[in-house]
């Protein structure tokens, strides 16, 4: 359909001299009046098509049906509330399409509500925003109904088929307060972010659980497998006990890498504030080592210098050592990309900004709905990692046919 208007039509619309912003977008501005006129014109054309003759055409006489005036309808649009006149037929068989019977909201209005909700606004805040911006009174029940409609999309997204192979998958969690059985509980929302063979980032799913036990992680792994994931080359995890075993029970060939950032944070939790600046270079020296053997020597140096004062740090690194050293098989620029869950933590930071204004969610579905919308909004800002081209070459050497199959 053509979208250009002739200069003559535009001149007619803008007749009357210079226009102020409110003349175009105000409550009685040109945009709203034009939308009203176009809708009514389109409804009239629909009725003409339904009856089979033009208004006033003698061909309509004796046809068995005719025009029967109009009825007023208040329609919520993304420009605010518009009062339109809907034509009727005498037989009552006219079913308009552009504004269906019973429809009270026009295309764009629901998307406006969903967009505001996805940016963290509460139902009451959305209600006030629409009233202030459009002069439209919208009930909280309507806003809830519109946002609840997104749950079908969430379920479809959560069960969609996935890639067969992901070179890198990051597993991380954030805490959300959710009401459950009459009590507000601190639940974990696990975010799984995969990087495809082409370097594209994709959130594979969200899982909500009060306790992060082995059974829960096994459920997540089986869910990924049931949705088509056959292999994960590198799984980057936050170091929780039992997580590597859950991954390898479903994806036995996966290289499990502990997130070094989490390990550092855990280490610093043992350290007094006055010692943190002094101790950090010794910790960094461990994972900045040129290879795994050198890293072990750096760990021994750290324990010799700080072990008596902070014995728990060295012990924590040694317990996780099997899953600390895998990234040493890669060049430094690749290590930086895979030894930390920074990629998913950046996403989590944007999610925390969205949920920070909420005291708690009434249920798991409400939390899932908002987090999904926030992820959908954030996705457009993700870019392919700068080092991905180099990473592809190293993955091809390290993993052979397993990566070659994913790159085809």
TrEMBL record:
Alphabetically ordered keywords of this record: DNA recombination, DNA-binding, Transposable element, Transposition
DNA-binding found in the keyword field: yes
Protein's GO biological process: DNA transposition
PROSITE patterns named in the record: TRANSPOSASE_MUTATOR
Signal sequence, renumbered to the chain: none
Source superkingdom: Bacteria
GO molecular function: DNA binding; transposase activity
Record function comment: Required for the transposition of the insertion element.
Family: Belongs to the transposase mutator family.
Protein name as annotated: Mutator family transposase
Organism: Bradyrhizobium barranii subsp. barranii
